[in-house]
Specification:
It contains seven helices and no strands. The protein is an all-alpha fold and about 140 residues long. The radius of gyration is 23 Å and the shape is elongated.
Length: about 140
Amino acid sequence: MQAAAPAAAIFDTVVRFLRIALRTLFLVGLIVALGAFLVGPAQAAVRLRAALSHMIDRLRRGGVRWRLQDGPVGPWVHEHRTALRTGLVLLAGLVVIFLDRPSGGDILAVALTLVVLLGAIEFLNQPRSPGGAAAHIGG
């Protein structure tokens, strides 16, 4: 009977790490599935993307839009938006990979940070205005 206690302790230790790993893997899978759904062609995803795009568009009304279009940041972000998005997603993946024993909260924090940074890219994404600053003076 005395050999059962150390065996139980070893079993509990192994199972504990497996449980944590399975929970973390489940959360990663859930976030990836949600992300895949949101970029897909489903009608709900299309409506949600349109609503978010409309909200971001409302944030950059008037002078903010003109300054982004005529300054160096908006056109640069517009030209490099795919690379910026890809880089952020890869960076978030690397952060999760290199975390020592990531918890569900860690992964959720990385995912939320990624969403906020992707929103910042969309906010800054402005093609150069056709007429430049002179077009805004008359209008």
